[in-house]
Specification:
alpha+beta, about 35% helix, disordered C terminus
């Protein structure tokens, strides 16, 4: 149990080199580790997890560590007993202001404003839309994600 009273099952922990060629393997390892514990994952959820992992690991390598092959990225994943996927990814970079990239879209939440977001801000916007919660440390070089593993249904009125 952690300090929040949540029972957590650690499913993946690794430090990977800042090399784009290891991203796919790492994503697949995390997904397989999640499937080993949470076996009733549907294809839509599986796809969303892959997108989140891929975007955040690539961001850490490309934008955080500036593709410096001497730097590393730490990936930690867990599942709570209440069926939430927890993810933290950190890099050795200088960090950045995450809120800057979403500020342009925050004023008008009813309109998708992909064209107004810089290319390097789109991945975070996508991750935010797929997750229940996303936070960064103060420095901006570590991201924390919470995603429900329960299927969400949207009903039309």
């Amino acid at each position: 149990m952690n300090s929040l009273g949540l029972e957590i099952f650690n499913v993946y922990k690794s430090v990977i080199p800042s090399r784009i060629e290891v991203v796919n393997r790492t994503v697949n390892e995390v997904i397989q580790s999640v499937i080993n514990i949470y076996s009733n994952m549907d294809n839509d959820l599986l796809f969303e997890l892959k997108v989140v992992l891929n975007e955040l690991i690539l961001n850490a390598i490309i934008h955080g560590n500036k593709e410096d092959k001497d730097k590393f990225v730490e990936v930690n994943a867990a599942i709570t007993k209440s069926n939430y996927f927890l993810l933290s990814i950190s890099d050795e970079g200088e960090g950045y202001d995450y809120n800057f990239y979403l500020k342009k879209c925050s004023e008008n939440k009813d309109v998708l404003c992909w064209n107004d977001v810089e290319e390097k801000g789109r991945g975070i916007k996508i991750v935010k839309s797929l997750c229940d919660n996303i936070r960064f440390n103060e420095k901006g070089n570590k991201v924390f994600v919470v995603k429900s593993l329960e299927k969400h249904y949207i009903t039309s009125e």
